[in-house]
Design brief:
The chain is of the alpha+beta class. It is about 30% helix and about 15% strand. A hairpin with a 3-residue loop joins strand 1 and strand 2. Bound molecules: guanosine-5'-monophosphate.
Length: about 150
């Protein structure tokens, strides 16, 4: 499955939206959901997805859902930067397997970057639950404080 294809409602992010799979949730509103990446490329790597859009990628997503997703990306990026104080932050989005996409429900990556630290391998190396739980608690608290 790559740039062109049919949306698979059994993809892992669709399951997370439906509550059929767990996630370390950071933020949720009527249109968007944000949670920690299970295989983080840096400390604080988070994902933001539209909840109501059965779109695999940027080409398919409706503009309104995209705008709402980006509003959550900005909100979360501000909280991540305030809480974790990285030296930089990447916001990324991949379309099609050759571009690096591995989950085919559109999502935005927020990847904090720390000076002198390289980027971990994409979608590999599962984080420890205790680390994700602690990170989730910090970021949720920060988001609530800045709401
Ligand atoms: P993509 O490769 O499609 O741009 O990004 C998919 C992201 O989802 C990867 O960074 C990968 O680590 C992450 N991921 C894959 N499976 C899961 C999962 O079950 N839960 C969470 N939270 N993240 C996942």
């Amino acid at each position: 499955m790559s740039l062109e294809g049919t949306y698979d409602p059994q993809n892992i992010f669709a399951k997370i939206i439906r509550g059929e799979a767990p996630c370390y949730k950071l933020y949720e509103d009527d249109d968007t959901l944000a949670f920690l990446d299970l295989f983080p490329q840096s400390y604080g790597h988070a994902l933001v997805i539209p909840k109501r859009s059965a779109a695999r990628n940027l080409l398919e997503v409706d503009t309104d859902a995209l705008c709402r997703t980006m509003a959550t990306v900005q909100r979360l990026t501000r909280a991540i930067v305030a809480e974790l104080e990285p030296d930089g932050v990447q916001v990324a989005q991949f379309n099609g397997a050759p571009a690096g996409q591995t989950v085919f429900h559109i999502h935005m990556h927020i990847v904090p970057r720390y000076a002198g630290e390289g980027l971990g391998k994409h979608a590999a190396g599962k984080a420890e639950p205790a680390e994700l739980e602690a990170l989730q608690a910090r970021l949720v608290k920060r988001l609530q404080a800045t709401a």
